[in-house]
Each structure stands twice: as structure tokens, then as C-alpha cells.
Amino acid sequence: MIVVKKIPPKDRNPLAQLYFAFPMLVWMGIIFLFSTRVGSVDQTYYLAKKALSLFDPGEALSASPAALAKVNFLVRKMAHVTEYFLLTLFCVRALKRRSKNLLILLLLSAVIAVIYAVSDEFHQSFVAGRTSSLHDVVIDSYGVLLAFLLTVWLQAVHSLDRRITRKTPQKEIH
After folding, report:
1. Is 15 exposed, middle or buried (0-12, 13-18, 19+ CB in 10 A)?
2. What predicted TM-score, i.e. pTM, was given to this entire model?
3. Is 92 exposed, middle or buried (0-12, 13-18, 19+ CB in 10 A)?
4. Of these four, 5, 90, 109, 171, which has the most CB atoms within 10 Å of its CB?
């Protein structure tokens, strides 16, 4: 008896799937790491001083604790937005071979990122020195929304560029 082995289509190749999902999985691991003591307020205080010194080196040395606390707060919240902005883009990358419908792809990526944000806050509730906050999930969701909007905008620009290119007559080279 002859057995014919089906070769999986390129889209079903596990290595190809891992290739596209790997950045998303690594980034989820980094977010998880930041949810531990590594990402606590006292650990990010140093980054706040560095951020302040970028704008005014003398100010970072003479800044009051209250001013440093405000900068630290802003750095931390911008980190939340950035983390989930990137996670959403990595989700889009991981899933783009599964769906040709941009809206479904973006919605699924956004849902995954927001669920991960909720699970991240839940995880933080078990870490000493960390607190869990629904407010942080909302801030994370701003990053998701920005990635969503950027992807839609880039797709619109790309579609417009394709339409313009198709309508432009090509000059013959002699």
C-alpha cells in the first residue's frame, strides 16, 4: 500500500506560524517580567531621573521628590501605552496569515491585547510591592487603540497608493 503524505500548506506550517508569533510571545514575556518587582515604582524611579535629565540635566539633580514622582508616574503610564501598542502590532503580525479581513484581524488582536492587560493586572495582584488597577487596563487599552488606528491608517495609505499607481499610465522606455 502506498501512503501519500499531505504536505501542509505554507500557512499551516508550524515553523512559519512560530516565526510570525515569536515576537508576540517574547513581548508577552517581557510584559510579564515588568509585572514583577522589576517594574515596581521604586525600580522605575531611576528611569524617571534619566528621562528628566534628557530635557534638563541640571534639573534632574535638583528636582524635588514630588517632581520626580510626577515624572516617574508619566514614564510608567507611557510605558503601559507603549507596551500594549507594540503587543497589538505583534498580535497583528502573528495573526495576519490567518485572516485577510483587516477589521477581524484588528479586533482579534485588540481582544488578545486587552485580555492580556487584564491578566497582567491580575498577576500583579499576587506580586509583593505591586498593585492591580483597572485604571492601568484602561491606559493599556489606549496603546491598543493607537496600534489599531495606526494600522487602519497605514492600510488606507497603502490602498490609496495602489490605486494611484494603477491609474497612472506607465511610460514606455525606448
Report:
1. exposed
2. 0.78
3. buried
4. 109
The answer for 6, left when phi > 0, alpha when psi is -120 to 50, beta otherwise, is beta
Phi/psi-derived region of residue 63, left when phi > 0, alpha when psi is between -120 and 50, beta in every other case: beta
Q: What is the pLDDT of residues 93-139, one digit of tens each?
A: 999 888 888 899 999 999 999 999 999 999 999 988 888 899 999 99
Rounded to the nearest 10 degrees, the angle between the axes of helix 65-95 and helix 41-55 is 100
What angle do helix axes 14-34 and 65-95 make, rounded to 10 degrees?
170
Residue 80's nearest CA partner among 24, 137, 134 is 137
The whole-angstrom separation of Cα 88 and Cα 7 is 31
DSSP character for 129? T
CB–CB of 31/116 below 8 Å?
yes
